[in-house]
Every structure is written in C-alpha cells, then in structure tokens.
Amino acid sequence: MTIFALSTGPGISGVAIIRISGNETRKVVEALTREPLPPPRVACLKKFNKINSSELIDEGILLWFPGPNSYTGEDMAEIQVHGSKAVIDALHLSLSGIENCRLAEPGEFTKLAFQNGKINLLKAESIADLISSETEIQRQQAIKIMNGKSSDQFNFLREKLLKILSHVEAKIDFPEEDLPNNILDEIKNSSDEVINKIKKILNDQKVGERIREGFKIAIIGPTNAGKSSLMNYLSNRDVAIVSEIAGTTRDVIETHLNIDGYPVIISDTAGIRDSQDEIEKKGIKLSLNRAEQADLKLVVVDAKSLDFNDVLKGLLDENAILVINKSDLLEKDIDPEIKKTNHVLISIKENKNIEELILKIKNNLKNKFLTSDDILITRERHRQHLQQCLNYLNNFNRKKEIEDFDKAAEDLRLASRHLGMIVGKVDVEEILSSIFNDFCIGK
C-alpha cells in the first residue's frame, strides 16, 4: 500500500508539500507527471496532471528518494506546489483515485521510519515533541533527545543487564560448577551500578516532563479575591469572565503562556468557600485537585479579609506564593505572621507590584527548570518502564542472594525488557498507536 498526505500546515500558503511513500511511489508519481522520475534527491520542475486526464493541476517541484535511503526507508517522493486549498484538494483527489494509494494516518510516515529501522522510538517521540514545541527550552530538549544521548544511555544499561543475564544462565546450565569469584563479583557490581544509575535518572524532579508538557500554575483562593483578573493580566487578554458576583468561575479555565522561554499552563479555578450549590461544590473540588497537581500555587486573597480557613492554610506550602490583592484598600499593616510567608502585596486595579509577582514566578520557574545534559525522561511512559526495571532488579538481587538463579534470571529478563521498550528494542506494538496518533497527518 502507498500512502500520501499534506506535510505542511493547512491553509493558504506560498508552498505546500505533499509526501508519498510506498512500494508503488514510482508508479504514482509517473501517473501524475507522465514523465520518468528525476535523479534521486535532485529538485526538478514538473507539471502535475489529473489522473486519466490531460488537465493540469499545477506546476511545481518534485523530489525523488528511492528506498532505503529515505525518511521512511521506502520509496518516497515529495511534491511542492502552490499552497492553495484548491490545488491540494485536486492533488489529493487524483492520488486517492490511484489503486492501492490512500491518505496516510496521523504519524504514519514516522511510524514507517521506526518500523523500517531508520529511527528508534525515542527519536520518533522527540520528532513529535520538536513539531509541537512552542518555546526555546522545549526545542532544545527535543533536539537533545533526537541526537541520541538518551538512547545511548538506555541501550548501554540494557547491554549490561544482558551481560549479567548471560553469566546467570551459565550458572543455571552448569549448576555443579562454581562460577569464578570475579564473575560473581561482576554480577553484583554491575547490577548495583545499573540500579544506582536508574535511581539517579528517576530522581530528576520530573524536569523533562515539565519542559515537554508545561509548568503548571494554579490560581486559587476565595471568591471575589481577583483570581480571574490576575489570570487575564498575566495572559494579556480576557481569558476569564470578571464579575462582582461571587462564584462566577465554576470550572477550571486554562491558558498556555511563554514566560521567558519557559512553557507555562496557568489555571483559573473556582473560588473556595462554603456553598450549598451542587455545581459550585464540584467546581471547588476541581480547584483543590488542580492545586494538588500544580507545580506552583498562586493563593490569591483579598487584602480586606485576611482570615484564612484551614483549607487556605493548607495550600500555603513551599510551592505557593501568597498573593494579597486589593492592597490599595489596606488601611493598616498586615499581620506579622503573614509577613513570614512567601507573599507579595499587589493591586490589579492600580497595577501595583504585579511586576514583583511576575519576578517571583520567574525565579520559581528557573529553580524548577534547572536543566542539564542528564535529562533522559520526557514522558510518563519512560518513567513507568524505568520504575518497573528497578523493581525487577531489586527482586533479582533478593533471589540471587539465596541462589534461586532460575527465578532471578526471569526477573533480569523482565528488567531488560522494560529498558528495551523505552527505545523500541522489543515488541512495543501495544504502545505504538498511542505514540504515533499524537503526530499530525503528513508526519
């Protein structure tokens, strides 16, 4: 089967690129141009016609990439034409009229590249991350993963486990013979080395996931404290409805921001108060859940009513900034106990001290996004496989100590399997769909 898709963004543009891949790519392209294919990787000007008709669709550039030296590993071509909807639709209609030629599924070109051994699973994921990156730090992280350092590290650890497994299986095959002490020492030292390395990788404060998904900030507090006004100010647009009526915000409202190159997701939440309204109570529950999941909480309160209930006090931890709004209405100094907290006095109405709050947010971001070349985990999938690998290695060590080598070997096999699943070294069919469905069509 030969697949095709628009690889550039939809909409009007100067140039649109349509990608074709499959065993019959040569036949498909020759049907469109009615001419022989150009030399590989040489851009040639061609006329593209409707199938079974002499009607011209457009004139553009054709690039031919014979397999296996192509992105997908199959015969592949790229057609560059004018980016109008009419031209793209006409080409798609002609291509779909060719036998055994169909529109590609999301991520299918990259999935073929993985299946044909052109890239590993980590690189496939990093390509998706690069396409969707919105900030400089996200782009940098995707490029680091694409360069293969993470893959090299996981493959190195897996090879160490396979070497340990070969020694253990030797003991199983020849139970009457004692393994040399240096081999037994190597088994212990190598397994401990892998365990310590995985523990270090897992102890990364989830920086990689924060960079990829965005730093989560929850604006939380009582009703009418100015949460929605703060959300709109930080977003520089009217994201949330602002009203004097208490309880206006019932659901969680999110917006994505780029703060000094850091990806941020800010959530405005329902005001926390005692309520008998069932819908508002559900909104308050959502607020508390979002606060629990947030990397940083902005606890916004009204300067005129600084009496904290137990719920608000519980939110003021090391990952919170107390934002005292409407400070222009303060008639006396705030309580000394409140001064001890990480707080800032602002007035959204008077545009007072908001830059100080933004500076506090930026400093918090910089501390949480401390990056290094050692970032290896960018998705929850990686973390789960590493944790499973660690669990099996701990089981292996316990069984090895009592010389239950048969069962210990199985734990070692499972540990190496989980490492292999991160880079796609073993059967990962069950997770491929979820990974490649995140791609756009044409990639």
Description:
The protein is an alpha/beta fold and 443 residues long. The protein has three domains: 2-104, Probable tRNA modification gtpase trme, domain 1 (Gyrase A, domain 2, 2-Layer Sandwich), CATH 3.30.1360.120; 124-204 and 376-436, tRNA modification GTPase MnmE domain 2 (Four Helix Bundle (Hemerythrin (Met), subunit A)); 211-368, Rossmann fold, CATH 3.40.50. The chain contains 16 helices and twelve strands. The strands form two sheets. The chain has a six-stranded mixed beta sheet. β10, α11 and β11 form a beta-alpha-beta unit. α6 (149-173) packs antiparallel against α7 (181-202), α6 (149-173) runs antiparallel to α15 and α7 (181-202) runs antiparallel to α14 (380-401).
Biggest beta sheet summary: 6 strands, mixed
The CATH architecture of the largest domain would be 3-Layer(aba) Sandwich
| Helix and strand sequence | EEHEEEHEHHHHHHEHEEHEHEHEHHHH
End-to-end distance, in Å? Answer: 17 Å
Count of individual domains: 3
| Widest beta sheet: strand line-up | 3-4-5-2-1-6
Give the class from helix and strand content and strand pairing.
alpha/beta
Instruction: Write down the CATH class of the largest domain.
Output: Alpha Beta
Give me the number of helical elements. Answer: 16
Q: What's the alpha carbon Rg, rounded to whole Å?
A: 29 Å
Name the CATH homologous superfamily of the largest domain: P-loop containing nucleotide triphosphate hydrolases
Bin the helical content: 40-55%
Query: How would you sum up the global shape?
Result: flat
pLDDT average, as an integer?
Answer: 85
Which fold name fills CATH's third level, the topology of the largest domain? Rossmann fold
Strand runs, count: 12
Q: Low-confidence segments, ≥5 residues, pLDDT <50?
A: none
Strand content: 15-25%
